[in-house]
Structure formats: structure tokens, C-alpha cells
Amino acid sequence: MDVSKYQAFASEHLGGFKNINLLVTAFTHRSYLNEHKKTAGGHNERLEFLGDAVLELVVTEHLYSKFDEPEGVLTNWRSALVRTESLCAAAKRLGVEPLLRLSRGEKRGSQRAREQILANCYEAVIGAIYLERGYPATKKFISETLLPTFDEILYSGSWVDPKSRLQEAVQSKEGFTPAYKVISEEGPDHDKTFVVGVFIDNKLRGEGTGPSKQAAQVAAAAAALKLYQKAS
Length: 232
Hints:
The protein has helices at 4-13, 20-26, 30-35, 45-66, 71-82, 84-93, 104-107, 111-133, 135-145, 150-156, 162-173, 213-231; strands at residues 179-186, 193-200, 203-210. By secondary structure, the protein is mostly helical. The chain has a three-stranded antiparallel sheet with strand order 1-2-3.
């Protein structure tokens, strides 16, 4: 196994890494083992489990110490910081994607599936850093690679669920409650794609696509919000 690219990643972003095999494991998806049983080593799900817990603690500690806000607001802010989209974006900024060890099938997977894999890998890297260097170094990594995006999240209002934001905007301006309807669905049961429309006063105001009805509803609400923002 050529570990040079993982050593380069560690050198650039982590100041080096003694147990390079542990770091390689953080980049290894379960599917990779199916095609490389003898050479793959382990996959990253246990590291992801550990990293998820450390990540939540670091983000919670940061928000608690920096902002004097009620629990509900802090919870929403934390959810926005640790959601799949935020972690995927952090992983992409770090150049994680070319380092992923995936099966051929997963390499051809949907965009949503890839985003989830990248987010999980980011958490697994956190888990690996924690095991090698402990909490202070892990906190530093998260503080440098994820927490700086919080100002943008706060400014854009994306920490508020788009469905809630749309409902508030529509009810205040038009007096209606948005209604969501499935327009179409495609694919096998384990990999469906839903298209959902959001209707206001029986008029289609936005469409969204997602791997679940809920995700498609959120995308539809976000699309409708863009129209409202343009009109305002």
C-alpha cells in the first residue's frame, strides 16, 4: 500500500502522524473491504463513531462558551455545524475526496451518498486524531477546519430549518400554510430519489429532490425561499 499521499495529507493538515495506518483506516469505507479483503485492513466506522462524539463535544463547548443563548438556539446552531452538508464541505476543503478508499460501486454512487461518505470520513479523521494526540489537538483541528464556517451559517440563517423559515415567511405575507406533495419517485427501495413540490394556495412555488421525502421537502422549501428573497 502506498501511504505517501496520506503522509502528505498528515504533514499539511495535521503536522505529521505517527500511526499512519490508523489515518489510512479513517479514509477506508466499508465497501473497500469487499474488493480488498487481504490488504485493506479495517474500515472507518468505529473511528467515525468516536469522532462524532468528540466533534459534538467540541462544537457544544465552543457554542456554550462563546454565546449566551437559550438551549434551543444553541442546539439548532450545533445541528447546522455538524450536519452532513457542513462536514462534507469541510472534507472537500481539506482535499479528502481523492484519498477515499471506496469500492468501484461506491465510486459511481449518487451525489448524496458521496456527501455522506465524505462527512463520515471527516468524523473518522477526527477519531484518528483523538486517538493519536488527544483532545487538545482534536479541538484545534475542528476549530481550524469547521468552526470558522459558523459566521456564514449564522449570517445566512441556514441554521433555521428551511421549512420553518418558509412557513413563517408565507404565513406573514400571504396567510397560507405551505403544503408538500410528492411529484415523482424513482429507483429501487434502497436507493430511491424523490421529487417533492411545495404548494402555496394550490400554486407550485418550488421543487426539491432528495433521497427521502423529508430531504426533498427541505430542498423544495429552500427553492421556494430563494423566490421569496428575489421578490422581496
